[in-house]
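Researcher: Let's run the pair from yesterday's discussion. Sequence first, then tokens, for each.
Model: Starting with the first of the pair.
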Amino acid sequence: MVPGEQAEDAIVADVGNVKEGEVRAMGIEDDPEQQHDGKFSMKNLLWHGGSVWDAWFSCASNQVAQVLLTLPYSFSQLGMLSGVLLQVFYGLMGSWTAYLISVLYVEYRARKEKEGVSFKNHVIQWFEVLDGLLGPYWKAAGLAFNCTFLLFGSVIQLIACASNIYYINDRLDKRTWTYIFGACCATTVFIPSFHNYRVWSFLGLGMTTYTAWYLTIAAVVHGQVDGVTHSGPNKLVLYFTGATNILYTFGGHAVTVEIMHAMWKPRKFKYIYLVATLYVFTLTLPSAAAMYRAFGDQLLTHSNAFSLLPRTGWRDAAVILMLIHQFITFGFACTPLYFVWEKVVGMHDTRSVCLRALARLPIVVPIWLLAVIFPFFGPINSAVGALLVSFTVYIIPALAHMLTYSSASARLNAAEKPPIFLPSWSGMFVVNAFVVTWVLVVGFGLGGWASVSNFVKQIDTFGLFAKCYQCPPKTHAPAVAGSPMPVPPHH
């Protein structure tokens, strides 16, 4: 038996030996078919997910939340050709680093199992993998970048909720809507783990699929606006701002380890993220290209794609579905933060869902506050992408993989050998070195300069605690179904 198979058997065996109450308290499940002797259970069908399909739905659903609405804005900054090429490039790069994370998880788990460590009451997280493989300094770096990224990822979901609902009901300003949705999203504290997102992941992907094709079809039916211009790219600051938003788009695997740990057979995760990304391309490329072709440079001052489309029942449905999906994505981003906080306060192995929910609530408060302070829908994505995603999702996994397998003995005893399409350790080292160099220079360096400059510009223009970011003036009567909404002015 090869080391990888031994690791997988150890993982499954370890989970299988857990008492039922302990398992459910932590959200660590064995295959429901094994638990119930093949008997059908509606609870297992809707609540206890750990299959390859569950992981695929989780990855695909988590990847294309509100960023779907900002990609047309990025195309206006990048131009059509760069927009398409960078989506494909960063999508494949993101799939590669997700693969690296999955390999490192299996390696860490295999080593710990050989030492007799049990994870039956513990959800493994990325910073723990780094700690076990590379030491405490890597743990600190992983913890800092990952938690900060997930914190701002949750903030972005609240901002997106307020931005979207405003296009259906503008009687309240966006800041007030942020307060309301912050309270709604706080209910995610009751969802124990990624096992329990089965039905939500499935519905979430359906919602983004509808929204993407609505944007595509609505833009084609609308046609090009009078005097449309497509001048992008015409400024370096805008070009690299748009590029880092796409870097952010395909950097949603900060929760990869938690999704893997929720699987019955984590070793099967290896190529799931790539397949999810290929599906995501069918949503992001047509919708962004169609919107940019129809509206061109108008998108430079309309970071939310909904703002330029006429109000119809179809658009209202897309807005509502995206609101629900953003609630789901908020939970995806917050759940790893909940786990970290539970471990800090000693509540991670508590069986009571209510006690764990109460312990998690302090995490929601700073997210709520940051969403009110920085309500810049669109520009905040680029800033988070350049300063946080670049390290969390791309640089740290590539460096960690190179260092973990730097010795001949580590390569010889590796739980996972190089993939079929790149069977050489030297080849993997070259690819990893390219990822680190590219993202450090283009993503963090140039992207950081551009996105922070743009972010500061938003603060200078609208101020902190902006009451209604990029809201059109209420000088017209509210639009009725089937009629176009007033077009927001250029800022």
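Model: Moving on to the second of the pair.
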Amino acid sequence: MADNQPGSLKLRKEIGLLGAVALVSGCMIGSGIFMSPQFVLVYVGSPGASLVIWAISGVVAMFAAFSYTELGMVIPESGGEFIYILRIYGPFPAFFAAINFILLAKPCSIAIMGISIAKYITAPFYPECHPPQLAVKCTAAVFILVVAILNSLNVRVAIRVQIVFFVAKVIALTVIVIGGIIHIIQNSATIVENFSVETSFRGTQYSLSTLGMAFYQSLWSYAGWYNLNYVSEELKKPEKNLPRALLIAISLVTGLYLMVNVSYLAVMTPKELMSSNAVAVTWGNKVLGSWGWIMSVAAALSAFGSLNGSFFSGGRVCFVAAREGHMPEILSMAHVHRLTPSPALIFTTVISLVVLIPGDFQSIVNFCSFTAWFFYGITLGGLIYLKIKKKDLPRPYSVPIILPILVLFVAIFLVLAPIIDNPQIEYLYVALFILSGALIYVPFIHFKLCPGLLRKMTVFLQLFLEVAPADKNL
């Protein structure tokens, strides 16, 4: 509920332990496990190496999530990387983090989820070829708009939807695991071909570029381990529920991912998996026969739940950045009746639809992961600084310093390896896009030019959208 003080408006604390687990694991189990296995296998070249990549990625996600938990306890505010960089490094670096996550990382994530849903929805209608790009992107746009409306109307409903779809996607992955076990029992030759010591690592690619790209794809499937830090002001008892939810969610997801990949490789040869348009659909057609379409529906539902969770957290980054003066003031306001950050959600929707127009799944994942891990590294460096220089800060939860150090090394590897081994001009474009934020920061944020025009626009939109400034909910 809103605060009892007159004129005060706050977002509600609606997220309990179950909702937190559903938000984290529901975002993690999305399009990635249904789309990325083929790309991981393409990059590393062998089934054994791909399983190692998936296992290491789960450990990295767990270490990173626990490190973020300590940051969430020391800086108990919503906003994730933006708010942590702001409090540790200052406003100038924080603005670049805001630009990255508001205009690049989160919209790209939402666009990818939309594309994934659309591919699985349209796949049964085009069994012999890839669905037309226009059909895929129009379908993706429809689902993005549906989720935007849902999150703008009611926080509680959005969390309930997240829980329902989390249960549905766990059931879908369990079906894949059980189907794989049955197939292994019935076809022992597959075990020899794909999982024996002699053959499972045959053809492995060891270059820095291929390993980096493989980790981009697998870690993309674990993306979501950080989402609770974006909404910590809406989390009930964060000092208890934050670490518990992360431990439960990431352990569950890592176990499921490994078993699902084993199931894929048990049913399909590596060549079939790498050439598949939709891995889960190919698996369903081989195992379930005429009922294979069920996997298209299950994958689409899974991606929809992940889209909902990513949208829920993504809008909060924009909301918090605006509240701190790094984005237009209108984006820091909440609806006076529904208590949702509707202006920030609308803005995120528009940017996501723009990103959707030119993008494709594989390239968006690679370049989005490149920038994301750059800022994860900066954030973890800030935690290491706090643990060394600010030991007196109150910490209801603390991790051994070796954990953020290890994840920082992983972040450095993921940022530098593809550039060193296989430089591409697109990485320069992405870096220039983020750095171009200085052209906005200096005149409009630092020197606050054109305040009159912005004030008039803010008042108009405030009345039109029925929103008002929202206070922190700590």
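Researcher: Give me one sentence on the second I can quote.
Model: The chain has 20 helices and two strands.
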